[in-house]
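Researcher: Sequence recovery benchmark, item below. Answer with residues only.
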């Protein structure tokens, strides 16, 4: 059995972010991008967190990475130099709030780290994984 595709959850409401995510995920058959505002992702968030937080996520196998952890893991997956990936990881907590307020119109939720993918959330993310 093959490893399920990873899912990158991002703010797809702006063309610039869709373009960046398209570039990040190009030629990566094992990484699917899904906009935060989609109905399926909203149901996934509710099942995973009991809420619908505005957060940057990377779902890999049985883990949900949030915030700076998601940034580092996404950059690592793209093959970016580890030093650069760690720099972005360290910067994320400092710039996410002001950047989010200015660019997204809202600050990201204060959710960071790695969480176990819940069975209820898996039901919503697995169909996205299969769209690779």
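Model:
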């Amino acid at each position: 059995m093959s490893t399920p595709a990873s899912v990158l959850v991002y703010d797809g409401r702006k063309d610039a972010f869709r373009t960046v995510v398209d570039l990040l995920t190009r030629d990566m058959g094992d990484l699917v991008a899904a906009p935060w505002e989609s109905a399926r992702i909203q149901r996934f968030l509710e099942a995973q967190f009991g809420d619908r937080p505005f957060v940057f996520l990377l779902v890999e196998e049985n883990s949900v990475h949030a915030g700076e952890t998601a940034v580092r893991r996404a950059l690592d997956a793209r093959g970016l130099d580890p030093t650069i990936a760690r720099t972005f990881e360290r910067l994320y907590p400092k710039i996410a709030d002001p950047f989010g307020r200015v660019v997204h119109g809202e600050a990201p939720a204060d959710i960071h780290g790695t969480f176990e993918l819940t069975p209820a959330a898996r039901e919503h993310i697995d169909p996205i994984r299969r769209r690779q």
